[in-house]
Specification:
The complex is a heterotrimer of chains A (668), B (264) and C (332). Chain A has 4 domains: 197 residues, Up-down Bundle (Fumarate Reductase Cytochrome B subunit); 120 residues, Fumarate Reductase Iron-sulfur Protein, Chain B, domain 2 (Orthogonal Bundle); 152 residues, Rossmann fold (3-Layer(aba) Sandwich); 119 residues, Rossmann fold (3-Layer(aba) Sandwich). Helix content of chain A is 55%, strand content 5%. Chain A is built from 26 helices and 9 strands. Chain A is elongated and about 100 Å long. Chain B has 264 residues and is α/β, with parallel strands linked by helices. The termini of chain B are far apart. In chain C, helix 3 crosses helix 4 and helix 5 runs parallel beside helix 9. Chain C has 2 domains: 185 residues, HUPs (Rossmann fold), CATH 3.40.50; 122 residues, TPP-binding domain (Rossmann fold). Chain C has 9 helices and 18 strands. In chain C, helix 2 links the parallel strand 4 and strand 5. The radius of gyration of chain C is 23 Å and the shape is elongated. In chain C, the strands form 4 sheets. Chain C has a 7-stranded parallel β-sheet, sandwiched between helices. Chain C is 30% helix and 28% strand. Classes of the chains: A mainly alpha (668), B alpha/beta (264), C alpha/beta (332). Chains in contact: A-B, A-C, B-C. Strand 9 of chain B pairs antiparallel with strand 13 of chain C, so a sheet runs across the interface.
Chain lengths: 668, 264, 332
């Protein structure tokens, strides 16, 4: 017997009807997609068409290989089964189409036979089975486990049940066919073979099996066609929108905020209306599968603030549907729903610490962060609406170039007795040590600055400071949305850098590190930026530091969001600690999954009035490691965690900067 | 309503003040110049009055060219135009001469209400608004922490902060001068479009002749006060940690507070 | 004939301390110039105060009486004073740099066409008959000397609590010259409608002269009571403040939070109890004239900014402090 199967076995003469019927789901899909594309294109232009090969690669990595999805192993595997099941079965159907309608009639070539057919049958059965297992597990997760971040709407169940039925009827098709035709090679369709064996037990005659088969076949066809047609009108859209979203993702570092170009000549700033987002922003809203991972990792959400990245995206999605439709028809929304204030509440926007966990964890690479900052820009620059405590913060930056009401003339007082080189007075200095606002003025952080200076001196590094010519780097101002103020500070710093042709910078604050490294180049100045932990580790490796004293502390390391997630510097601080022979125990949320201290995004300068205190939550997480010291690499984290320890009145844990820990182990 | 706010550009309160070599004045290098903080309340009040009753808000300032920067800050929040009184002859004017110069300008701009800050944080005289009131024959209320206007009745009700938590409620005829105190209102932050628009708003410059003044009426010549030497107060003593057992230390502290700080 | 005139201030039937300070200052100047020291007393039904003025050094008291002068307004008082001064032509006219003085004297000076040196901390008489006046500028960061060479009278307002009050001599009396003025209310464009007293003794911390502030070290809301007792011991013009840590821990309400995200205060005395002194807190009170810190931790940053510090348990120190202050005050 020929090793193959007849495609339209038992359903002769339906070919034309099937093809005609097929037009319906295809039409629905294409039409639905077209409408969606029109909605996305309401957004402004944005160039995401560069680096095509890299995009294809990223699509494979995140899409095909589901790498991020698998970070949560159980739902990751469940989806992997469903996803690959769908894909393989879909390809399987395409192969049949190819055979039936192209290669056979046009080229008279039958490839659907022999070994090809056997492997085809095996693979399809395998993946079909995996898909069924996946769907059943998914249903179990929704019905029994009920994780909080998963909202169980009827649409979610409908999609799962529908797909399940398509799969089951597919298998019943196969089983019934095999039961009737009974070719031995069909053992390769192992699942279908077992089903057929089961059917045979019913001892039905061929005619009955054939009737049942026809019923199953038509059911399967209609369900499958319906499923395809349903895609564009349900969460199943993610089958198309999510891969698209991955393809068009940003390759820029997480949290990179570009300067508003040509400030002088713009009329509006930031985003206050739906159509002021870019098309990619709008695509993001349709790529969301409501998995809830962003919400689970958001420090604001888990500390009971009103902000949930998932909610922001989904609220934008409904707003797009509502307003987009009217915009396309050139009708007015009456009354116009305010994007900021009604669709997204101001409290949500201000609660964000810009930690980037949401962006890092999203399996379909949605970019929540920038949308929040763009809306903040509108609030600050256009509406002058922001938490009242920021008025003084802005004024201080404007008048004294630091966030506190301290005269800028005293910026170098912390180093009065240290006789440091000043760029204004000496030439031939290799490194600029950027002290940063906290390092100059905050009593606790001054200790870190002085410690670092002592280390640099011991290692014979040729460095100097800018002293009173150092202005705030502009990070907080930009994150809060006050781009005008940020640019004033940035331009002033760039003038100073140009004046002294600064080429290399050592900085102990990750916020400074991030903005100098990634954003100053966009405003016209590039320089080599080294975090103090990187420098110190380099010095240790080169043997320039006299390490001697063995340290005997149980230690854990808190990753700074701006050093870690933003710039992927995870290993160097850890290697540094290990080089000091410290017993390092990781917190559960560490490295790129690190939990924010709560101060980023300008929140350091705002009151935390809602929910729990993020810094206290982080300290409690640190306590679980039984560490005596929490090592930090950032003055914000240092301040927040120390405050957390004081607030919780914990005695047996303390925070130290990496430089301070190193100092403990230096031989004098 | 024709609202005029008198504004002065002063050194930022955190700026380090250094005396010039002959102690005749402070050094102006390295100073961050800002709008007098109390004037911010005057500007905000002016904006609120304009929003409520309509009209025009003019910023009036006597000072060097750089004062324009401070005026632009006010224009950025919504003031309509500025008038800068600038002339080398005006330099060195005391409160009396300054008020004379302002009064001449105000006669030209006209006014229904004049707002100022309660004092300028450079020379801390807290006088100009009063002398101005004399020249213009107007009533004034100083240290205003509350203000209600009744333009049709040409009256205003002002709350004046005195001492010990007390306030006076004073009714004045309009036009009048109000010297604004902190917490009269919450000064608004300028929007970026506002800042951009401010760059194009008109700032008229008037000099000695435009105001019809003679050189001997203004500047040092026209001042009643003659400035002498500037000097620095004795440096603040470094903080001391009072030694001893608690009861002794406490007693010592109280003694120090009475004798050195003269507080009890 | 010239004279040294001072403007007496009174409230609720009693002379205010500034009046005695002015008289003491006047006495010093009189010692040099030999002129008569006269006090201007304005009001209604306060003649009895004239005797006190004599005891503290006034040779003459010009008692300007009128119903309209019962309430202070700068217009009516200026008119009254203008009359006497034009009549008597004193060489010097002094007032207090008090709320009233700061409001009144500038108008008087303008009316008289003379110069006024406000808020002075030192007034001396030179041999040439000119006052050499020292006054603070730039919030006290700089002092400057001024003179009033031409116009008369030479006017100045004296900063309170700077001149020590010389002991009174009850044997001395002043000649009282009473004038009944005929001021008409209709002539004036301003009228005092009402005096609003503060609610009990709680004045806003931004207005307080002395602030006793508590931080995380207070441990509980109830413990703020000891701070209130200390504040009360100091008397009028005092308030209780709190650091952000204390407010966040619900020991105190936000309206008394001192700091960058709370209120910025500028008292003469700031007593920080159990406050570590983070830079955000300092930003709210660093312009205080005198800062006292009480903290268990000798390393607390607040000690860097404090003029006087006690390293100790605030629960021991504060009640003792209250006692000592009360003792000292009762002795005055």
């Amino acid at each position: 017997m020929e090793i193959s199967r007849e495609i339209f076995w038992n359903v002769e003469g339906v070919r034309l009807i099937v093809y005609l019927l097929a037009l319906i789901p295809i039409f629905l899909l294409v039409f639905g997609l077209w409408k969606k594309i029109k909605l996305w294109r309401i957004g402004k232009k944005e160039n995401r068409y560069d680096q095509i090969w890299r995009r294809i690669g990223t699509k494979i990595y995140y899409g095909a290989l589901q790498v991020r999805n698998l970070e949560k192993i159980f739902p990751g595997i469940v989806h992997l089964f469903i996803f690959w099941g769908f894909v393989i079965l879909f390809i399987g159907t395409l192969i049949i189409f190819l055979q039936e309608d192209i290669t056979l009639p046009i080229f008279n070539y039958n490839f659907f036979q022999g070994n090809f057919y056997l492997w085809y049958s095996l693979i399809l059965d395998l993946f079909g089975l995996l898909a069924i297992i996946g769907v059943l597990l998914a249903l179990c997760r929704r019905i029994f486990l009920r994780p909080e971040s998963l909202d169980n709407k009827s649409e979610d169940f409908l999609s799962l049940y529908w797909f399940l039925l398509v799969l089951l009827t597919g298998f019943s098709n196969e089983g019934l066919r095999i039961a009737a035709t009974n070719p031995d090679f069909e053992r390769w369709s192992f699942a279908g073979w077992q089903i057929a064996s089961g059917i045979k037990l019913l001892r039905l005659d061929i005619a009955s099996i054939q009737i049942l088969h026809r019923i199953s076949w038509w059911t399967h066809l209609l369900l499958a066609f319906g499923f395809i047609g349903y895609i564009a009108y349900s969460k199943l859209l993610h089958i198309i929108s999510s891969p698209l979203n991955i393809f068009f993702r940003s390759f820029e570092p997480i949290g990179l905020i570009k300067p508003i170009p040509d400030l002088e000549n713009q009329e509006t700033f930031g985003v206050s209306k739906l159509e002021e987002f870019t098309w990619k922003d709008l695509l993001d809203t349709d790529a969301c599968t409501k998995c809830g991972r962003c919400e689970d990792s958001c420090p604001a959400w888990v500390s009971s603030k009103p902000l949930s990245p998932k909610k922001v995206i989904l609220d934008l999605k409904s707003h797009l549907l509502e307003k987009g439709k009217l915009l396309l028809r050139k009708k007015e929304l009456n009354p116009e729903k305010n994007l900021i204030g009604e669709v997204i509440l101001e409290d949500e926007l201000w609660a964000c610490t810009t930690c980037g966990a949401c962006v890092r964890v999203c399996p379909v690479t949605i970019e929540h962060l920038l949308k929040i900052v763009e809306m903040r820009r509108n609030l600050v620059l256009m509406q002058s609406r922001f938490p009242s405590e920021l008025s003084l913060f802005f004024k201080n930056l404007e008048n004294n170039y630091n966030p506190w009401t301290v005269g800028f003339a005293t910026r170098a007082d912390w180093a009065k007795d240290l006789k440091l080189k000043l760029f204004s007075q000496e030439k031939d200095i290799e490194y600029l040590y950027w002290v940063g606002c906290a390092g100059c003025f905050d009593e606790r952080v001054k200790k870190v600055s002085r410690t670092l200076v002592s280390i640099l001196n011991q290692a014979g590094i040729n460095f100097g400071i800018l002293g009173t010519e150092e202005y705030c780097c502009g990070d907080s101002a930009r994150r809060i949305g006050n781009e005008y103020l940020a640019q004033i500070l940035i331009q002033q710093n760039i003038e100073t850098f140009k004046k002294y042709t600064i080429k290399k910078m050592i900085v102990s604050c990750p916020h400074g590190y991030n903005i100098f490294k990634n954003e100053y180049p966009l405003s016209g100045y590039e320089l080599e930026v080294i975090h103090h932990s990187e420098l110190i580790y380099d010095l240790i490796k080169k043997g320039k530091l006299n390490l001697g004293k063995k340290l005997n502390y149980k230690i854990t390391y808190h990753d700074s969001c701006y050093l870690g997630r933003y710039n992927r510097v995870y290993e160097v601080p850890r290697k540094l600690l290990k080089a000091l022979s410290l017993n390092l125990k990781e917190m559960e949320l560490a490295k790129d999954r690190g939990f924010c201290c709560g101060a980023g995004g300008g929140r350091m300068w705002m009151e935390e009035k809602l929910g729990q205190r993020i810094n206290q939550m982080r300290i409690k997480q640190a306590q679980k490691t039984e560490a005596e010291i929490v090592a930090t690499a950032c003055p914000y984290c240092l301040t927040m965690l120390e405050d957390g320890i004081k607030e919780l009145e914990i005695k047996d844990i303390k925070t130290l900067d990496l430089a301070e820990i190193l100092e403990l182990s230096l031989q004098k | 309503m024709n609202i005029v706010v008198c504004l002065k550009q002063v050194p930022d309160t955190e700026t380090k003040i250094v005396l010039n070599p002959d102690s005749s004045n402070i050094l102006t290098e390295g100073i961050k110049w800002v709008m007098n903080p109390y004037d911010e309340y005057a500007v905000e009040e002016g904006l609120k009055i304009k929003e409520k009753f309509g009209g025009k808000l003019t910023i009036l300032s006597m000072g060097p060219e750089r004062s324009i920067e401070a005026m632009r800050t006010a224009l950025a929040t919504g003031a309509d135009e500025g008038v800068l009184l600038n002339d080398s002859a005006f330099e060195g004017s005391d409160s009396y001469a300054t008020a004379l110069i302002l009064s001449k300008a105000l006669s030209q701009t006209g006014y229904d209400i004049i707002l100022t800050g309660k004092q300028a944080v450079d020379l801390d005289c807290s006088q100009v608004y009063a002398v101005l009131a004399e020249f213009l024959n107007l009533p004034y209320v100083s240290v205003v922490v509350g203000l209600e206007l009744f333009p049709d009745q040409k009256k205003a009700l002002a709350k004046r902060e005195t001492e010990g938590g007390e306030k006076e409620l004073i009714e004045v005829n309009l036009p009048a001068i109000f010297a604004c105190q902190k917490d009269l209102n919450i000064p608004r932050y300028a929007s970026l479009p506002g800042i951009m628009k401010a760059k194009k708003k008109e700032i008229k410059k008037l000099g000695l002749n435009d105001l019809g003044l003679k050189p001997e009426e203004v500047g040092e010549a026209g001042s009643k006060i003659k400035k002498g030497k500037y000097f620095l107060p004795p440096p603040r003593k470094a903080g001391i940690k009072i030694e001893g057992e608690i009861p002794e230390a406490t007693a010592k502290l109280v003694k120090l507070l009475r004798e050195e700080a003269k507080l009890i | 004939m010239p004279g040294i005139f001072i403007i007496a201030e009174h409230k609720e039937g009693k002379l205010k301390k500034i009046t005695f300070e002015l008289l003491s200052q006047g006495k010093k100047l009189k010692g040099k110039s030999g002129e008569e020291l006269c006090a201007l007393l304005l009001g209604s039904n306060i003649e009895n105060l004239a005797t006190q003025l004599g005891a503290y050094g006034a040779d003459k008291v010009f008692f300007l009486e009128d119903e309209t002068l019962k309430d202070y307004t700068n217009e009516s008082f200026t008119q009254a004073i203008d009359g006497v001064v034009k009549n008597q032509s004193p060489s010097i006219l002094l007032g207090g740099a008090t709320a009233q003085g700061k409001d009144l004297l500038p108008r008087v000076a303008a009316r008289l066409g003379t110069g006024l040196a406000p808020d002075c901390v030192n007034i001396e008489l030179e041999d040439n008959g000119l006052l050499k006046i020292t006054r603070p500028i730039y919030a006290g960061k700089v002092l400057m000397e001024v003179t009033i060479p031409q116009s008369r009278p030479q006017m100045a307002t004296l900063r309170p609590n700077v001149v020590e009050v010389l002991p009174k001599d009850d044997s001395k009396t002043a000649e009282v010259i009473k004038s009944k003025l005929d001021l008409k209310k209709e002539d004036f464009k301003s009228v005092l409608k009402e005096i609003l007293k503060g609610e009990s003794k709680k004045i806003d911390i931004t207005e307080a002269n002395i602030i006793v502030s508590g931080g995380r070290g207070m441990k509980a809301k109830e413990n703020f009571k000891i701070l209130e007792e200390l504040a009360d011991a100091f008397g009028e013009g005092t308030a209780v403040g709190a650091s952000r840590a204390a407010v966040d821990s619900d020991f105190a309400l936000h309206d008394i939070q001192v700091g960058q995200t709370g209120k910025v205060v500028n008292p003469t005395l700031y007593i920080a109890c159990g406050i570590s002194g983070s830079i955000q807190h300092l930003a709210g009170m660093s312009t205080s004239k005198y800062i006292v810190a009480i903290n268990k931790d000798p390393e607390a940053p607040i000690f860097q900014k404090a003029d006087y510090g006690i390293v100790g348990d605030l629960f021991e120190v504060v009640p003792l402090l209250t006692q000592e202050v009360k003792k000292l005050k009762s002795e005055t």
